[in-house]
Amino acid sequence: MSAAQHQALVLGSVSFVAFVFFLCFLIPSRRTKFSVFAACNLLFVALMFGAVALVDLSGGRAEIIVAVMTELPVVLIVAWVCLALAGGLPAQLGTLPAEPVARRPWLRAILGSAPLVLLLSVGLATAVGLAWPSPALRVYAPAPPQFFVLKALIMAPEGLYSGVAAVVFVVAGRTRGIKRRLYFKNLAFSVGMGCIALIAFESTLFAGLRVWLSGGDRRAILEVLNTVEACLAISCILAFTAGLSLRYTPAVATTLLHRLQIGWLSAQEQFESLEWQAVSSGAADRLTHASDAVVEACRIRGLSEPDTQKALATIRLVAVMRDPSGETQHITPDAARRLYELQQEILCDDVLASRISWAAGWRSRAHEPQTVKSAPLHDALKAALDLVDNDGESEGVRTPPHWYYIVAVGAADAKMIDPAHVSMQLRDGSEYRAAIEAYDAAKRALQMLDDRD
Amino acid sequence: MIDVDVPKRDLTGPFLSRLAGFWRPLRNLGATQSCVNETRSLLTAAEFQEELAILGLSGQRFEPEDYSDALGEYLGISIAVHVIPDSWYPELSRLLAISGRLGELRYSEQLNLAAIFVPGSLPPLVLTLTILHELGHLAAGDLLIEFDEQSAEDDKHAEETTFATIPLKKGKKLARGSPFADESLREREANLRASYALFAGCLGDDSPHAYDMYDVL
Q1: Which residues from A are below 8 Å from B128, CB to CB?
Q2: Which stretch of DSSP H or E encloses residue B116?
């Protein structure tokens, strides 16, 4: 077996072992488009090196063709990685660029040009090799300068793009606040691409030494470089395997997020904005007096500000549901029930319930941000449905808070709901009587203010 | 200000046309490149994540104020948000409510200034989304459309997935695509930007779209 066949056997075996590992362990557990593509390339490389190891292909243009074919899978891997980093892959393979690339349009253009430049360089190198054949597969044989040109044409762009990709992976991994697993994943890919860049540099150096180095140490130096290349190839495969094995699943799935965007958020915004429009434009006229009295009654009963806001939100909801205008025709009990169920779905998810929040005011850090749970609308929806729903489907409020009694009294007084339904639901308890007294006192106080004006 | 005019076409001979054909896919990879005189679909969450990356907010939790500051810095304009208490201008809420609007955006190209006016009586979630909606118009470059460029057609696009856009002559925007010719589509896209921004700001690196930018393979 010649030195070239021995070298091919080593690299072919490494590639084949890596292919078997990908096929048996990696792809079944985490199948990405890239892992399948990499597995195909590994198989192709293993077959090519196997052919070189088994059959003596040295001599003439066939040697050039085989040499270029063994380089092609690595070139394709580099092109895929660069295009993936640039977000240039077709939509079904993934469209988002890496974060550091998205911020730098020039970097995106450089990485996006990789497939074109790399394939052009391979084509050019093939043309040079076919025009001036050289002993590309005979590892230690002296070579003409054309061989160096052939190698450099492939390796220079490959090394450049691999190096850039390695740096991008490092920058992506070092982003502030990134999850630990994603940090190691990007680091592993960075090592892998760094190894490819080093192999490209080493290969170019190797070709130069074959052309220009002579003397007794030549063979020894070339053997050392060959060993280095094999080690780098193994490191590269191990690094990519590690990177592809590291899995991280985001806390919120894309489909759930999409459902929340088109479901919960748009429904809650519609509810609150239509209600605001109805109140602000004066469309819900009879509401004004009732809501003022409810707020005043809450103050008389000494309720907290959040409870007062819940009472206000509830009386508004009851008003627009009972007296829908052109703007508020979409605020129906059914729509309210759907929105409440969506809110419950969010509250059942710990991550969503704790994360989804919005500021209580612009550039206002004084107030706690509102969440689905703390926003008045959530409790108001339940309370309003309990008050409006006369079909007997409502479970009723088992232990109603103080503000609920006041809203019930206010809504009954404003003829928004049936007073008999309220007294039956609340069963004339002491809280109910206290709410009636507070509400009556609030109405008298407001009346006195009106008279004074 | 960045000039977004396309290169002059009269210099492009047959050879240059072919060369331009090779160059176009690369050129389109530029983040702020306008897709002029084309049709496009509505903004996706992934595309919005790219915009956040350009602003340096991808994968981070942020408030609408942070988004506003970053957008203003990127566009090179000053963005002022005025939340007007009802006690100052009691008529503002009523007039906006009657007109069916929740806020108002004014932009002065000469002063490099954008001002957003929203009534203080809006519920907090609606206030946040309204401000983000108006910021979305700035990001999309909707205010850079000159009046005579606006399409007079009033087509309904219920079945379509891509829509006509308007090329911009000047001005800087964050979005890759040009603004839609149809005003209702511009409003829909501003709504989408607002909802994407709210969720992205809340979830930070737990957002699946942010995660995708750190796991490209």
Answers
A1: 358-359
A2: strand B113-119
d(CA A167, CA A179) in angstroms, rounded, equals 19
pLDDT in tens, A9-63: 888 888 898 899 888 887 777 778 888 888 899 899 898 888 888 877 667 788 8
**Chain position carrying tokens 């009954």:** A412
The whole-number pLDDT of residue B32 equals: 43
CB-CB under 8 Å, A257 with B208? yes
Collect all residues of chain B within an 8 Å Cβ-Cβ radius of residue A254: 45, 208-209
Per-domain residue ranges for chain A? 3-245, 254-359+369-452
* CA A395 to mean position of chain CA atoms: 40
Q: How many CB atoms lie within 10 A of CB B209?
A: 25
Q: Any CB–CB contact under 8 A between B98 and chain A?
A: yes
Tens digit of each residue's pLDDT (9 = 90 or more) over A389-416: 755 444 555 678 889 999 999 888 888 8
Q: Would you tell me which residues 135-194 of chain B have a C-beta closer than 8 angstroms to some C-beta of chain A?
A: 191
Opening angle at CA B107, ends B113 and B30, nearest 5: 85
Whether residue B185 contacts residue B163, with contact meaning beta carbons closer than 8 Å, is answered with yes
Beta carbons of A408 and A435 less than 8 angstroms apart: yes
CA distance A76 to A84: 12
Q: Do B123 and A254 touch (CB under 8 A)?
A: no
Is A28 exposed, middle or buried, given 0-12, 13-18 or 19+ CB atoms closer than 10 A? exposed
Q: How far apart are CA A293 and CA A302, in angstroms?
A: 14
DSSP single-letter state for residue A263? I
Q: What secondary structure letter does DSSP report for B206?
A: G
CB within 8 Å: B64 and A359 = yes
Report the 10 Å Cβ neighbour count for B187.
15
Q: How far is the C-alpha of B38 from the C-alpha of B177, rounded, in Å?
A: 9
The verdict on B46 touching A (C-beta cutoff 8 Å) is yes
The pTM of the full predicted model, rounded to 2 decimals, is 0.79
Q: Is residue B22 packed enough to be buried (19+ CB in 10 Å), middle (13-18) or exposed (0-12)?
A: exposed
pLDDT over 70, % of chain A = 92
C-alpha–C-alpha distance, residues A428 and A422, integer Å: 9
Cβ atoms of residues A291 and A409 within 8 Å: no
> Both tokens of residue B8?
């002059």
Which of B26, B46, B119 is opposite residue A96, by nearest beta carbon? B46
With beta carbons under 8 A apart, name residues in chain A contacting B204. Answer: 177, 355
3-state helix, strand, coil in chain A (%, to 5): 75, 0, 25
Q: How far apart are CA A345 and CA A335, in angstroms?
A: 15
Q: How far is CA B90 from the centre of its chain?
A: 31
Distance of CA A91 to the CA centre of its chain: 15
User: Is domain A3-245 classified as CATH 1.20.1070?
Assistant: yes
Q: Please give the torsion angle defined by the CA atoms of residues A288, A290, A293 and A294, in that order, rounded to the nearest 10 degrees.
A: -110
Distance CA A184, CA A231 (A): 21
A102 contact residues in B (CB cutoff 8 A): 31, 50, 53-54, 58, 213
Structure-token pair, residue B147: 């009046």
